[in-house]
Amino acid sequence: MPSQRDDAMAHDTASAPVHIAVDRAHASQPAGAIKIRARDVNVFYGDKQALFDVSLDVPENSVTALIGPSGCGKSTFLRSINRMNDTIAGCKVVGRIELDGEDVNDRSIDPVVLRARVGMVFQKPNPFPKTIFENVAYGPRIHGIATGKAELEAIVESSLKRAGLWAEVADRLHQPGTGLSGGQQQRLVIARAIAVSPEVILMDEPCSALDPIATARIEELIDELRNQYCIVIVTHSMAQAARVSQKTAFFHLGKLVEAGPTGEIFTNPRDSRTQDYITGRFG
Amino acid sequence: MTDAALPNAAANLRQVVEARLKKRHAQEMRFRLYGRMAIIVALSFLALLLGRIVTQGYSTFIDYQIAVPVHLDASRIDKADPTGANYDLLVAESVLAKLGEKDDEFGEKSGKVMEIMSNDLGFQLLKMVREDPTLIGKTITVTGPVKSDAALYFKGQIKRSTPQDSRKLDDQQLDWMDKLKASGAVTSGFNVSFLTNSDSTEPEQAGVLGAIVGSAMMLLVTACLAVPIGVLAATYLEEFAPKNRWTDIIEVNINNLAAVPSIVYGLLGLAVFINWLAVPRSSPLLGGMVLALMALPTIIIATRSALKAVPPSIREAALGVGASRTQTVFHHVLPLAMPGVMTGAILSLAHALGETAPLLMIGMISFVPGVPEGFTGAATVLPVQVFIWENASERGFHERTAAAIIVLLVFMIVMNLAAILVRRRFERRW
To answer: Which ipTM did the prediction report?
Structure first.
């Protein structure tokens, strides 16, 4: 009996310093089929290996958080999913990443089509230096999704609405997107990604350049979006991972240490490195 | 003990630091002084250069016109062949009449008058009579420039105090001119003909219009060739080409080409464009092609640095929504780089505008008394016009050399201002 209490005590002190309030509803087993299946993914930047044999399943209609210290390879993994790593000279991806059972690195997959299916939101809000309307309309336009001006306008409106930005910008659609605040810019970028009707949205530390209020707004948005999309988010904030995600994967030194339902990772990690990281002992 | 030692050490330290501080301040003051001196020297050279050009050239923009009533004596002009008459003599006699003098039997006086009156007056009469033969027998007033030597006297550049043997005009001619000016027959005004005439053998009739049009046509050819080729080459190298040894070699070579002496491009033009492609010599097309070769490296370098300045986040944003690389570059990156590209292009074109050596090499150093007839016709350009006039023997041309330089500098300044405005207007900050 005393030993059990000791365990409980140890557990409490371990999780106490990070003040994580895990939403029990979210922590329940993530529902839905597997959207992205990664198997033995190795990524090299020149001679340097950045990822070692990463295998991870990302479920449909849920938020999967990738956490870990800087340089652990979580962003590299994220960028492998929509082949953004192709644009980096000397970067080589080995292994299999399947989107609905198709290998994204297959010759038959055109990265242009892949990136329309797998949207991406970056760390720093990067709207085009064009109008708000043009920012959102760009994707549908190049993919030929909208057939007329009215349809394009409808897509822009619905995308901005889904990104929770419509009310703030409806009367200034033709002003530059770069004139918005940081948080608004990030939601504009999300609207831009949504406009091409992606299946997956990758977010690379979407809140790291934002203040807490804008961050809260984005997190709410992520929570709303997960009903329609498969979302993968890289974050440095463990509190954020706990708040928004249903599944969490912990990366360390290029290896996937542990992945599982967010509640389990934060309350009962199996690996001591995960434990150390989430309790703030390193990273 | 250590407690006592430390403050001492600190005091020493402060002394050392202060002693050094004086040195450091002195060093800084010295450096600022050198900098100021360098700027003063540079500015005074510039002032000297501009001042000399302006003081030499401004007088070109003042001209002296004479208005004389000439009686078109029907007995001296053949109606059937009006070209055969000596209009210069008619003008000279009319001027003498105005001076209250009569020509002597040897025509010595009228000869002297012809030395101070431009033959433009005679040409004007001929033209009028040819167009309207009914003028013969009437008296008409003709207005035209005085000869450049006479104008130089009015401008004070030929002085009466100089002994008669060492100046071009004798005392009698000077007296006549004073009289004509006093009577109001000779008036001064802004020299419009310098800007509306082309080159001429007579300095008072020579103007820069042909050279300006030639320069404009040549620059047009240069711009049409060098800007698209340069921008596309730079875009390919910067955005599409793999980064390997070959592209490194190409990059080094482009940078070196920017430093190749311009006369070498002239030789290249001579060998390739004239001998091999048989482009007409001394034409704006040929000059433009040679200068395009010369401007290419500069435009490529400017475009590449403008492309490099576009933040990678824009590329990621476009690629992230599924744009192809070509779409990313042409929809986003290149438009954002355009101010830098245009600035670089305008500056390299301004450089091309002032280029002389390669044009001499391809035979653009010819006397072209008119506006070029199309892109393959013979043409002269401003810097070459300067070169030609500088080598002329008449004093009037030296004045015009400086004036042509002023015109050239004005065009340069306009182009540089355009570059600055483009940069100001379209500059973006991220």
So the answer is: 0.81
Residue with tokens 């004070």: B156
State the helix-helix crossing angle for B87-98 and B120-131, rounded to 10 degrees: 110
The verdict on B163 and B213 lying in the same domain is no
Contact residues on chain B for A194, CB-CB shorter than 8 A: none
pLDDT in tens, B43-68: 999 999 999 999 988 888 988 988 88
- Whether B294 is covered by a domain: the verdict is yes
Q: Are residues B220 and B180 in the same domain?
A: no
Judgement on whether residues B164 and B219 belong to the same structural domain of the protein: no
Work out how many domains chain B is built from and give that number: 2
Do B113 and B241 belong together in one domain?
A: no
Same domain (yes/no): B226, B132: no
Optimal mutation site among B248, B321, B325, interface A, most CBs of chain A within 10 A: B321
Phi, psi dihedral angles at A56 (to 5 degrees): -150, 140
Q: How far is B323 from chain A (nearest CA, A)?
A: 6
Place of tokens 């406009």: A195
Q: What is the pLDDT of residues A30-88, one digit of tens each?
A: 456 889 999 999 999 988 999 999 999 999 999 999 999 888 889 999 999 999 988 88
Q: Which residues of B touch A196 (CB under 8 A)?
A: 321-322
Domain that holds residue B217: 209-426
Distance CA A101, CA A35 (A): 8
Residue A81 to chain B, least CA–CA distance (Å): 12
Beta-strand runs (E) in A164-246: 200-204, 230-234
For residue B196, being part of any structural domain is answered with: no
Chain B residues inside the 8 Å CB shell of A127:
317
Domain assignment of residue B219, yes or no: yes
